[in-house]
Amino acid sequence: MKKLMIMLLAAAATAANAQEEKPYGRLRPDQTAYLALYKELVEINTTPTTGSCTEAAARIAGHLKVAGFPVSDVAQFADTAHPKDGGVTAILHGTDKTLKPILLLGHLDVVEAKRADWTRDPFKLVEEKNYFFARGAGDMKAMSTAWFDMLMRFKKAGYHPQRSIKMALTCGEETTYAFNGAAWLAKNRPDLVAAEFALNEGGGGETDGHGDLQFQTMNVGEKASQNYRIEATNPGGHSSIPIRDNAIYELADALVKVRNYEFPVKFTDTTKLYFAMAGARRHDDVGAAMVALSKNPDDAAAAASASKDRTNHSLLRTTCVATLLDGGHANNALPQRAGANINCRIFPGETVEGTRAALAKVIGYPKVTITPVPPIRPLAQPPKLDPKVMGPAEALVKKYYPGVPLVPSMSTGASDGIFLEAIGIPTYGVPGDWSDPDGNGVHGLNEREGVRAAFIGRDFWTDLVEAYADEK
Description:
alpha/beta, 15 helices, 19 strands
């Protein structure tokens, strides 16, 4: 099928040079419309405490319907117990019913942002110094806006893809204990998200901190996030007559053992390829160690050297770290209870119970209990390095970013993709936009998205979705 010409050819030529100081020239009409939608979505507070994903989902549903989507093809959903955590799905029907759809996955919720700590209002999209500043500007309202903006443009242009294109924008991705819309859809309405594969956040490029784009990544797999409660208990008593059996000391000893323990080195097909490719682009001892380790995973010296890079360290193994601490009940009493939250990022193929057992063995003290904290997430299942997925992405990276490689990688974090993979939908974090080595303030202060990254990423994603939708 002839490729739908939605963007000007000049945009692709401009995209090839991500290092220009000027972020963009005169905006095209479609870019102006995208910017208005992006601003609208960013300025809807979707934090778990005072915000509403349901309001954002309703606005998106309204835009889709105005663009021509029938009511039957747009679905808003929310659990009655969590009325502000709603989401929205949509479908653009394909012409070939024998082909499975593709799914565009995104989340609407953002982490908290305390106004007093920010330089600017976190819920106003501010353009400054070639960046858009706001909570959610990068994670992930630029991409979520691109998804529904894309469907609207396709619909208005009369585009009829071969594959159906589905979209699911949900809530709860950023908060472990919140209602999670992607998990709800996977369990209760899998028909709305059923697809051959899904496209998600997690990929993208990184600059050297001075504007030069170093690489683009395709996120192929992720770890599973799981919290554990480590707790020590004692009878307690008066603090004037202390004894060695002290819950706080016992907990402290256990935490030191957790800190010092290294889970064994593991590889997936994706991470092995990542270490070979990314290591070859580094011209230092860490890069050489990465390449050596990709050839011989049992090379302990190479593992130690490669692990000096904190990202490499996490890519190579399950990691567990103490994140919360509590204990005692009075300043003149021996503690009866002391506990800590241990956040583990579990390597694909490893289990929640297996990780708990490893921690118990390391601590080696039966009086200290280790209990998984609900919710219990599915086992991480890495997708395949499927040429049907990797090929079009690699071709577009060459077109938009000549000389910049596409490197497959694994997320050390966790996304909603894990719930889709649990029901047989491989989920990939796509390349397209980029960030700086400091992470652009995501989850922290003064979060930002590069202006060029937002506009070029949007054009890249449009081409990518169209390539998938019209290729058998």
